[in-house]
Structures are given as C-alpha cells and as structure tokens.
Design a protein that fits this description.
Blueprint (H helix, E strand, L loop, with lengths): L2 H13 L13 E2 L11 E4 L9 E6 L4 E6 L2 E7 L12 E4 L2 E7 L7 E7 L6 E4 L12 E3 L1 H10 L5 E5 L9 E3 L17 E2 L9 E6 L4 E6 L2 E7 L9 E10 L5 E9 L6 H7 L4 H10 L5 E5 L16 E2 L2
Parallel strand pairs: 1-2, 3-11, 9-10, 14-19
Antiparallel strand pairs: 2-5, 3-4, 4-5, 6-11, 6-20, 7-8, 8-9, 12-18, 13-16, 14-15, 15-16, 17-18, 17-19
C-alpha cells in the first residue's frame, strides 16, 4: 500500500472511530423547515409549534435520520449515525431508562457521551457524537451536539423511542379509535387471563397485540403486568407502532399517532376495535392505564423469549 493511500485509510478509520473526543464531535447546523438538502450534522428544530404533550422519537436506520413528535406534531428532525456493520443498532420499541448530561461510557473507557439518553442497560443510548455521514457507532444513535442538547430538554425517563429498520417515514396522521375501546364481538376466546398490576405500580405503559399468539400483553415500566387472549385478529401483516395522543374524536375515542411500521398496510384501529373479542374485565383494566404517550404495538410476530425482553430493557425487538 502506498504511503498516501495508507494515510488516507488511517484518517478515515480514525474519523469513524467510536472513541472520538468531544472536540471532534459534529456541532450541528440548524436549518429552516423543509430543507432541500439534509447533510450530516443538519437538523430542524421547531418545538414551539406544539409546546406541550407526549413526546415520541422515531429513528430510521436506512435514512440515518431521527424524528421528534410532540402530541402528534413533528417538532424536530435530525441526521444521525447509527451502528456500523457488525455492531448494528437494535430495532424495536424502547423507553428512555436514564439521562445524564455528562456521561462517560462504562463499556468504552474514556468515550464521552454528552446528553446521554439510555435505551438499554447493555450500552445502547442516544447521545452527541460524530456524524461522518454513514453508520459508524458501536450501536448507539449519535446526534449533532446542538441537537442532542435540545432533544434532552423535551424528553424524560419513560419517553418512547422507536428504532425502525425500514425507510418508510413516520406517519403524521392519526387513526381515531382504540383497540381496547369497549366493543366485544362473538364468544370469548379461550385462554388464561393474567392481571398483576402490583408487579409494576408505576411507569410508562406499553401494550402489545400479537396476532400470532392471539393475545394482548400489557407492560408497565418494562414489566409484564397483564395478558389475555384476544379473538378475531385476522388480517394483521407486519408490525406497527402507535402512540396515544391527548386528543379524542367526536365519539370520545382517543386518537393514536402511527409512528412506525414494517408492513404494507397499517391497520385501522377503529375497525380492529369493532371486531375483536376480549374479556370485558381485562378490557376495563387496560383502558384505565392508557394515557397520552402510551405505546401500542400491533404485530403478526409472536411475543416470546426472542421478541420479549426482560424488565428495564426494550419492549419489543424485531431484530
């Protein structure tokens, strides 16, 4: 290898290193809405257009972008750098477990992670870092410094984060209705019903409806507190994530924001609510837990040891 080629290769590897010093982090450049070009380090930030409400974050790995919604309105968008080949960023539905403005990695000594927002206890987080224009981290979601600081101010422990491995952008429309809406149809499906809210008295709530299992699962703070069989879940193909909004439709049913999808057709929640059959008592208990920001995942995948994680980790993984 010629010396010039060797130096160029070495520089490229250094730039992609997960151990870059804070002085080498991407500062970031704020742009006006609807930019014609979106280069590494660019971001858009307009929190004033939706000043209050639940925050949901969506990361698109193929697009290398992050989207921020508050009460169903997109208030931010940023370029990111996710996991390099061999150290890919896990996909799925997560909640922020911990926040630290001046964090240093415990796995990679000396690696600074300003405005760290932890997604797993295994070392995956969102934080300020270097954005070379392609996936280059050890699995974390790197953000421009300026944007990381702004994002840090609008989130809290329990905020929902969706990491998707598909390029379809998050939806900006709501699907009125609620799967646990009070309608039951036909005979009750057979199967054991579990309701143990005392296992996690407080924390963010997430609901998973699995067509493969014919069941619904309720998690609070990452702990399963309930499950029940659900009938008539035919026609679900793919995995879809929704976030409960603060608004309701004319009939009093809560609006849900479609925030991530892996599949051709996002299910209509109102239609689904009108046809499913579920135990009325379980239904009533579930409805009491749903507040703005509650996550709902509708999937054709089974919820088992490979997709359901332990307490304090991500809720549902697709990888």
């Amino acid at each position: 290898m010629h010396r010039r080629q060797f130096l160029a290769t070495s520089i490229a590897l250094l730039l992609a290193s997960p151990f870059a010093n804070a002085s080498e982090f991407t500062k970031g450049r704020e742009l006006a809405p609807m930019p014609k070009q979106f280069k590494p380090g660019d971001y858009v930030w307009y929190p004033q257009i939706s000043p209050v409400g639940p925050v949901v974050i969506v990361v698109s790995i193929p697009d290398q972008q992050l989207f921020v919604f508050r009460n169903g309105v997109r208030i931010g968008r940023s370029t990111v750098s996710t996991g390099a080949p061999g150290r890919s960023t896990p996909t799925g539905v997560f909640t922020i477990l911990e926040k630290n403005m001046t964090h240093e990695s415990s796995l990679y000594k000396g690696a600074e992670m300003p405005h760290m927002q932890r997604l797993t206890w295994g070392g995956i987080a969102m934080h300020a870092g270097q954005l070379p224009g392609y996936p280059a981290s050890h699995g974390c979601v790197r953000l421009p410094e300026d944007f990381a600081a702004k994002l840090y101010e609008v989130t809290h422990v329990g905020t929902t984060v969706i990491i998707a491995d598909n390029s379809s952008g998050p939806g900006t429309t709501t699907n009125p209705g609620l799967v646990f809406a009070g309608t039951t149809a036909g005979a009750m499906p057979a199967g054991a019903i579990v309701w143990q809210p005392e296992k996690a008295p407080k924390g963010p709530v997430s609901i998973i409806i699995s067509a493969a299992d014919g069941a619904g699962y309720i998690y609070r703070n990452g702990v399963e507190i309930g499950r029940a069989p659900i009938g008539r879940l035919r026609g679900i193909r793919g995995s879809y994530a929704f976030s409960a909004l603060a608004t309701v439709d004319s009939s009093g049913r809560r609006d849900w924001l479609s925030i991530a999808s892996v599949g051709r057709r996002v299910p209509n929640l109102k239609d689904l609510a009108n046809r499913i059959s579920i135990d009325p008592m379980f239904l009533a208990n579930a409805r009491k837990l749903i507040t703005p920001g509650t996550s709902l995942i509708v999937t054709d995948a089974p919820v088992n040891a490979r997709t359901r994680s332990s307490s304090g980790f991500n809720i549902l993984t697709s990888s």
